[in-house]
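Appendix B, Record 12. Input sequence as logged:
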Amino acid sequence: MSNRGRVAVGCVLGLLAMGRLRAADDSGRDRLVAALLGATPLAEDLQALSDRVGGRPTGSDANRRAVDWAMARLADAGVTARRERFAVGDQWLERSARAEVRGDGLSFAPRVAAMPFSISTPAGGASAPLVDAGRGAEADFTRLGTKARGAFLLVEQDLLADVDGLFREYNETSAIEQRARAAGAAGVAYVSSRASGLLYRHNVAIGAANRAPMVVLEREAAMRAMRLLRHGASLTLTVWIDAETSTTASAENVVAEIPGTNRPDEIVLMGAHLDSWDLGGGTLDNGANAVLLIDVARQIVRLGLKPSRTIRLVLWNGEELGMRGSFGYVQAHAAELDRHVVAGAVDIGCGRVTGFYTNGRPDLVPIVDRLLAPQAGLGPFAQVDAPVVGTDNFDFMLEGVANLVANQESANYGPNYHASSDTFDKVDLRQLHANAAVVAAAIYAFAEADVTWARQSRADVERLVDSTSLKQQMISFHVFDAFAEGTRGRRR
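Logged structural output:
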C-alpha cells in the first residue's frame, strides 16, 4: 500500500506451512453474506447521499451534512460510531469559474472547471495567448519553444474509457504540468477527456504549491479552439477563477466500531471515502462504497454477530485532497498501528469485486485466496500483489500495516469519474449488493481467522518503494517528498 519478528503473535507463514489457518466463523459469515445479498436500505441510503446531500468536497457545507447524515444512519442502525477530527492542511473549493476564447473576429465561451489547487485570478481575469501544445509531450514543448512562455497551453487528451486510462491520464498530466512550469507557461487548459460537454475535476499534480490558473475545458469547444489554432488562427484565452483556500481547515472522519470479543485490541479496518468533488452526486466515487460499509455495519449489528477482533468501518474525509483523512487517522492512532491486523479500502465504484490488491505483501495473497474461497460463487477472485497509490490504503502501506484495496471491474467508473455525470442513475444496485457481500466476507473472515503478522519496518517500506512502481506513483500524486523527508510514513 518485514520485519516479522517484532510482534509476539508470530508469523502467518509458519501457520500456513503447518496448515493451521483456522477458518472463519462460517455461520456468522454466511448469515452476513446472505443478509447483504437480500433486501437492505442500501439503495435508499445511496440515493439520499447522492441526491439530497449531493457532491461534498471537504470543507463544504454539503460535506458537513454528509458527516451528520452518516452518523444518523449508523445511530438508526444501532451501530456505535464517533467523529474523529483531523487537520486537512491545504483545502480548496471552487466558487466560480468561466472562460472566453477570442481572436480573428470571433469569440466563444467554453464551459470550464477549475482544477483543484488552481489559483484564483484577478477580478478582471487572467488573459494570455492560447497555443496548441499537442499532447503535452517533450516533442510538443520542443516544437513550441519560446512560444510556451507566458501562454495558456491547450493540451489534447484521449477520451477516457476505463480505469487503466484514468491512471495513464494522471501520470501524463503530472509530467505535462512539470514541463509547463519549466517552460514558464501562464497556465494549462486541458481538453476534457469526456464527451458531450462533461466536465470533471483532477487535482493539479503539485497541489497547493501550484501558482498558475489550471482548467479543464469542455471537449467540443476546446477541440474547436484546437482546430482553429491548427489552421493558423491567433487566439487568446481569458479565465476567471474564484477559489476558496485555507491552510488551517479541519474535517471529520466517521469511525464505526463493532467491538471484538476474544481479541478486542486487534483491529480489522475497512474504509471508503465520504468526500467527493461537487460536479455530480459523488455516487460512484465514492458514495456507493461509503453506504456499502454503512450497510455492512448495520447487518452485523442486526444479526447480533460478535466478531473475535474489533471491526472498524471508516468513512474517510479529505481523500480527494491527497488522502488527508486516513493520514490523520494513522497519526492519531499511531500507538495502536501494531495491532491493526489489516486495513482495506473500497474505492472503484460499483464494478464487480474481482479480488484485492495486496500492495507488495505476497504473504497476504494465499491468505486472501483462502478467506474468500467460501464466497467463490460471487467470484472468481484473483489477488494482485502490486502497490496502489491514490486511495486510503496509502498511509497504512507507508506505515507498514498490511493493507488491501478492492480490485473491481471498470464498469462505468472511468467515464464518470469526478464528473458531472457521477450520479445515482449510474449505479448497478444488484452488483453493489454483491460487492457488499464480498467485502463483508473478507472483513469478517479476517476478524475471525487465527492468523496475524508483523508490521513492516521503515526499511521494508523503502525496499517496496524502490523495487516497484510505488515511487513513480507517489511522485505523480505529489506525496513522495513527504515520505522521503520522513513527515509521512513509518520513521523506523
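The mean pLDDT is 93.
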